[in-house]
Design brief:
Blueprint (H helix, E strand, L loop, with lengths): L1 E5 L3 H12 L3 E6 L2 H10 L3 E4 L5 H6 L7 E4 L4 H13 L4 E5 L9 H8 L3 E3 L1 H15 L6 E2 L5 E7 L15 H4 L2 E8 L2 E3 L12 E7 H11 L10 E5 L3 H13 L2 E6 L2 H10 L3 E5 L5 H6 L7 E4 L4 H13 L4 E5 L6 H7 L3 E3 L1 H18 E7 L3 E7 L20 E8 L2 E3 L12 E7 L3 H7 L10
Parallel strand pairs: 1-2, 1-4, 2-3, 4-5, 5-6, 12-13, 12-15, 13-14, 15-16, 16-17
Antiparallel strand pairs: 7-8, 8-11, 9-10, 9-11, 18-19, 19-22, 20-21, 20-22
Helix pairs in contact: 1-14, 1-15, 6-9, 6-14
Length: 454
């Protein structure tokens, strides 16, 4: 496909890298000519220096010949205008990144009025994942794919003591015709292999045929378990803090926000009802103790500084708070997060890139998808005649370590594959991968002769 991206920031570059792995044609537009020159020397793409909301620039690049345009500049209004102009000039589909909370109650109106196909909001995306974790505890017992015969369940390893301390290759008999496709350990999601050891307090994600999964669910899940969340403290009153406080307050949770910018505190006070806004420095332990941090059920760090988020999350976990979540943008901190023992660390850039790529790929390839703790994604595709993975054993496909072919639905049968399993045309294939390396999936979905797809 032919795709234009306006804005060479973190999101624009991440999407560009992923699309190039999928062998798409990418044009990157940005005002920073030096940056574009550096990127063009590193990647096989076309670059256009300039302002993407200039109609002459869009016409000059023949925007009507493009399948998609993504507007990801640092201005919501500019992104909306770029998309509206590109769509009017003939671009097939347009995507806008919109982050300002003032727009959140009018997104449908903006889409309809400006003829925008898809709007993505990184802060709202991460908010929904945090909310889902705190309120729903990420139980996936009803995570049934569109094929209707395959289901996913999540449970603590402690519910099956016989598998603790053993590698996955040795627990196959305990699970039957099921497969461990992911492990959540100390706030980090791991895509396991046969030698991965199951540890105490691991959250296991298991896939299999619907009926056996439901039987396992009866053994390992506490009936009627929901949430007893009553008090949550949020550090950072930015967009994520604002969205999350609003959602939790509407659910009936008592919420406190600590924000060190006085003007921002005033803004939050005028936009949030039944939320306590505190002006202060969250690294001040005396302040946290005065605000009864030890009585909190949940603690979320959502400042603009990863180091501060991680440090405060570690402190909160050491004080015994049950649910501790950190917003972390740097992928280089992934190993550190696992050793810290916090419950969940989310990267808004990874989730936003995943949402955009799912929209670009559309229903032709991916017929369903589901996130695991905001760090991994499960998708279902239909194997067609153009895919080179057909009629080849899975172990010959040289899949990256972060990708697992988890299940195959063939006719009325469900297959939990091994390395010798051969995928056939029209199989429904379920794949899991880490969002931190979203380009990995694009390698799997390539359509040229060098990739898995012809």
């Amino acid at each position: 496909m032919k795709i234009a991206i306006a804005g060479a920031g973190k999101l624009g570059i991440k999407i560009t890298e992923a699309l190039l792995e999928g062998d798409h044609s990418v044009t990157l537009i940005d005002k920073n000519e030096a940056l574009l020159q550096r990127l063009s020397s590193q990647m096989d793409l076309m670059t256009i220096p300039g302002n993407a909301k200039q109609i002459s620039l869009l016409k000059g690049m023949d925007i009507q010949s493009y399948d998609f345009l993504l507007a990801a500049t640092n201005s919501d209004e500019k992104n909306i205008v770029i998309c509206a102009f590109a769509k009017r000039l003939g671009c097939s589909k347009v995507i806008a990144r919109v982050r300002d909370p003032e727009h959140m109650n009018q997104l449908d109106f903006i889409k309809d009025t400006m003829n925008i196909d898809y709007i993505v909001n990184p802060d709202l995306s991460i908010t929904m994942e945090i909310y889902k974790y705190l309120i729903e505890k990420y139980t996936l017992s009803n995570g049934i794919f569109s094929s209707g015969k395959i289901a996913i369940i999540e449970f603590l390893s402690d519910k099956m003591p016989e598998i603790i301390g053993r590698p996955i290759t040795e627990i196959i008999e305990s699970l039957g015709n099921m497969l461990v496709i992911a492990i959540s350990r100390n706030g980090k999601v791991i895509i396991p292999n046969g030698s991965t050891i199951i540890l105490e307090n691991d959250s296991l994600y298991v896939i299999g045929e619907k009926e056996p999964i439901l039987e396992l669910n009866n053994k390992v899940h506490e009936k009627g378990k929901y949430t007893n969340l009553q008090r949550v403290m949020i550090v950072g009153g930015g967009k994520t803090g604002l969205y999350l406080a609003k959602k939790l307050s509407e659910f009936g949770v008592s919420v406190k926000i600590i924000e060190n910018n006085k003007a921002r505190c005033q803004y939050l006070s005028s936009h949030l009802n039944d939320v306590l806004i505190l002006h202060g420095d969250a690294t001040d332990i005396d302040l946290l103790e005065e605000e009864n941090i030890d009585e909190m059920d949940g603690f979320v760090t959502a400042t603009g500084y990863d180091e501060e988020n991680l440090l405060l999350a570690l402190m909160a976990k050491q004080r015994g708070i049950e649910d501790v979540i950190a917003k972390v943008s740097r992928e280089s901190y992934a190993t550190l997060i696992e050793s810290m023992g916090i419950d969940m660390a989310l990267n808004p850039l990874d989730m936003t890139a995943s949402h955009i790529l799912r929209f670009i790929q559309g229903s032709k390839r991916i017929i369903s998808s589901q996130l695991i703790q905001g760090q991994a994604e499960i998708i279902e595709i239909i194997a067609d005649e153009h895919m080179r993975l057909i009629d080849r054993p899975i172990n010959s496909l040289q899949l990256p370590d972060d990708v697992i072919i988890a299940a195959i639905h063939r006719g009325t049968n469900v297959i939990i594959p091994n390395g010798d399993t051969v995928i056939e045309q029209d199989d429904r294939v379920i794949i899991i991968f880490l969002l931190s390396d979203v380009s990995t999936l694009e390698k799997v979905l390539r359509c040229d002769r060098t990739g898995i797809f012809k």
